[in-house]
Write a structure and sequence with these properties.
binds nicotinamide-adenine-dinucleotide; seven-stranded parallel beta sheet; 253 residues; Rossmann fold; alpha/beta
């Protein structure tokens, strides 16, 4: 039956940036759908763990700094040691640094590109190799942005990284679809998390943004639930290389 295809029972899901915001929301959703969730974060995921435990789900914390690419094999091996296989990767961790383009330092540019793009590629590559070894496919869901489609302002590295995530999602899907690996992305709109705290604190900007969102409200981590469970499930087995907007209608405007 169709709803069975949405079940993630028995699947092992790895979510980066699991301690807060959208990552936390997606961990909770995947666990509710039946997955065993390994959350990667720099800091303790205590809150995420307790939200999942409340629902009777399973959560495993992997502490790792994703700005260090040496952690790619460490993360994969830690999860393999615990569960023996992996089925789902959600590349959620990301940072945004706001500054006029003329003042952005090379160091800040690299910080954003390394985490938001290089790490997404390297983790995807490591997981795809493992999926191919396991021989029964797998899912990769990247977190894109409205800046995958639009320029934004005062966030040149962020916009570049998220535009690249959309392209990378398509490219990897083309290469890996024949191995039963689904690579897709979710483009969140304006969501109420740390990422947008500065925007929401600015009354003028916040009002302008809110006025432009057809749904008339900021999104929440819970709004990611349906899209992420779908893309990680068998129900999406013929969906490849697509970026689903969860944006309250922002892009339709
Ligand atoms: P957030 O700041 O709460 O989450 C970012 C997550 O990334 C945190 O869990 C943080 O710990 C993790 N992280 C950052 N640097 C890390 C590092 N070096 N090592 C390990 N983890 C690290 O904000 P969020 O809104 O939940 O962001 C999640 C994703 O969603 C990001 O990729 C962001 O770009 C994207 N996004 C957010 C919005 C929004 O409106 N909030 C919109 C579009 C896209």
């Amino acid at each position: 039956m169709i709803l069975d295809d949405f079940s993630l029972k028995g699947k092992v899901a790895v979510v980066t940036g699991a301690n807060t915001g959208l990552g936390q929301g997606m961990c909770v959703a995947l666990a509710q759908a039946g997955a065993k969730v390994a959350g990667v974060a720099r800091r303790s995921c205590e809150e995420t763990a307790s939200l999942i435990a409340k629902d009777g789900g399973e959560f495993f914390e992997v502490l790792a700094d994703l700005s260090d690419t040496r952690n790619v094999p460490v993360i994969l091996n830690t999860v393999l040691e615990k569960y023996g296989c992996v089925d789902i990767l959600v590349n959620n961790a990301g940072i945004i640094l706001r500054e006029d383009a003329v003042n952005v330092t090379e160091e800040d540019w690299n910080k954003v590109i390394n985490l938001n793009l290089n790490m997404v590629f390297l983790l995807s590559q490591a997981f795809a190799r493992q999926y191919m070894k396991q021989g029964h496919g797998g899912k990769i869901v990247n977190v894109a942005s409205m800046t995958s489609y639009q320029g934004g302002i005062r966030i040149p590295a962020y916009t570049s990284s998220k535009s690249a995530v959309l392209g990378l999602t398509r490219e990897l899907a083309n290469e890996w679809a024949r191995f039963g690996i689904n690579v897709n992305a979710i483009a969140p709109g304006y969501m109420a998390t740390n990422n947008t705290a500065q925007l929401r604190d600015d009354e003028k900007r916040s009002g302008e943004i809110l006025e432009r969102i057809p749904a008339g409200r900021w999104g929440t981590p819970k709004d990611m639930a349906g899209a992420v469970v779908f893309l990680c499930s068998d129900a999406a087995s013929y969906v490849h290389g697509f970026t689903v907007a969860v944006d309250g209608g922002w892009l339709a405007r």
